[in-house]
């Protein structure tokens, strides 16, 4: 009928066993015919349609949490993962586990209108939908999709205006970096994920096509890695010596990276003076909790990378011999 909208009400805690799709899924383990019906049910099931914008939201990643607070939806967030640390207001919120070990019992107890998660969390998505909980998957793998996801989340929350403002602000800042670095010779860069007790024992590099690779390119760098199947491949010291990057950037995802740790890393790199980055004292450390979070603070990462790779553009001047920078905002 015209004007009629279907609303599926989430099952109360303890009643989710009687969800038809959940029953079919359990039966499919024992009866072939149930497996067929289960597959058909997933294909033709009706998504929940709520009468108004969601007022109780659970976020399943730090990136999503930061986006929600950045678009003024923080008061609606009732649950976050164990890894969500920013903004400070999240410390008072209920924790729901992590992406690999979510507590569905806790999520259900929060009675959320909506759970927002990353698009590749298929197991989490299916489990929540079986419980009658509305989900919204978002893709945060690269810059284009991060910007799109901000608008998608804003539209789902009926708050497109602040989402559009954040989207446009990030887009303007991205364009400003492109203009500022236009025509500038790109420097070859090795960007690795640091934080090992033995600095040069296990080196995992930022691969081509990743979120951090995009930020590196935007900051005027050229990733020395070729495209590979691994997103963050392990690289050998021999490979680094052969490619001899002009700059090395270690991404340390914690803000308490101490001066003594930094000096230990530098000492290890100096064992390989043939590498251009070592020879030119172009070893840099980006030590912040948000370095690996594809969210609203991504331009802070670009700024740190650009200042490390092209210090002459930011009034930092030429570095003196023996100077190795710890880049921070």
Q: What is the SS-derived class?
A: alpha/beta
The rounded distance between the terminal residues' Cα atoms is: 57 Å
CATH superfamily name of the largest domain?
Nitrogenase molybdenum iron protein domain
CATH class of the largest domain: Alpha Beta
Give a short account of the largest sheet. 7 strands, mixed
Tell me about this structure.
The chain is of the alpha/beta class. The chain is built from 12 helices and 12 strands. It has helices at residues 20-27, 32-44, 62-70, 104-109, 122-130, 143-156, 160-180, 211-218, 237-243, 259-269, 276-279, 298-309; strands at residues 57-59, 77-80, 94-95, 114-118, 135-138, 187-193, 203-205, 221-223, 234-235, 247-252, 283-287, 326-327. The strands form 2 sheets. Strands 6, 7, 8, 9, 10, 11 and 12 form a 7-stranded mixed beta sheet that branches. Strand 4 (114-118), helix 5 (122-130) and strand 5 form a beta-alpha-beta unit. The chain starts with 19 loop residues before the first helix and ends with a strand.
Topology overview:
Layout: H1 20-27, H2 32-44, E1 57-59, H3 62-70, E2 77-80, E3 94-95, H4 104-109, E4 114-118, H5 122-130, E5 135-138, H6 143-156, H7 160-180, E6 187-193, E7 203-205, H8 211-218, E8 221-223, E9 234-235, H9 237-243, E10 247-252, H10 259-269, H11 276-279, E11 283-287, H12 298-309, E12 326-327
Parallel strand pairs: 1-2, 1-4, 2-3, 4-5, 6-8, 6-10, 10-11, 11-12
Antiparallel strand pairs: 6-7, 7-9
């Amino acid at each position: 009928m015209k004007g009629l909208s279907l609303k599926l009400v989430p099952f109360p805690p303890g009643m989710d066993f009687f969800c038809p799709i959940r029953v079919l899924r359990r039966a499919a383990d024992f009866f072939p015919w149930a497996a067929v019906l289960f597959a058909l049910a997933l294909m033709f099931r009706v998504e929940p349609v709520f009468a108004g914008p969601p007022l109780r939201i659970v976020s399943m990643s730090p990136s999503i949490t930061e986006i929600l607070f950045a678009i003024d939806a923080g008061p609606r967030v009732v649950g976050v993962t164990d890894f969500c640390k920013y903004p400070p207001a999240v410390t008072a919120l209920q924790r729901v586990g992590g992406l690999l070990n979510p507590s569905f019992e806790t999520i259900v107890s929060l009675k959320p209108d909506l759970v927002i998660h990353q698009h590749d969390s298929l197991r989490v998505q299916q489990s929540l939908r079986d419980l009658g909980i509305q989900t919204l998957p978002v893709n945060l793998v690269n810059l284009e999709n991060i910007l799109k996801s901000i608008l998608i989340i804003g539209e789902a929350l009926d708050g497109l205006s602040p989402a559009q403002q954040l989207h446009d602000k990030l887009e303007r800042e991205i364009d400003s970096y492109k203009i500022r670095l236009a025509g500038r010779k790109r420097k070859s860069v090795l960007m690795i994920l640091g934080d090992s007790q033995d600095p040069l024992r296990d080196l995992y590099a930022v691969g081509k096509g990743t979120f951090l690779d995009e930020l590196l390119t935007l900051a005027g760098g050229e990733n020395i890695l070729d495209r590979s199947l691994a997103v963050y491949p392990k690289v050998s010291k021999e490979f680094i010596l052969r490619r001899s990057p002009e700059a090395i950037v270690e991404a340390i995802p914690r803000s308490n990276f101490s001066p003594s740790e930094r000096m230990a890393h530098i000492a290890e790199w100096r064992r390989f003076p043939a590498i251009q980055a070592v020879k030119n004292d172009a070893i840099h450390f980006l030590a912040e909790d948000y370095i690996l979070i594809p969210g609203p603070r991504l331009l802070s990462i670009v700024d740190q990378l650009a200042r490390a790779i092209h210090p002459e553009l930011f009034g930092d001047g030429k570095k003196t011999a023996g100077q190795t920078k710890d880049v921070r905002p």
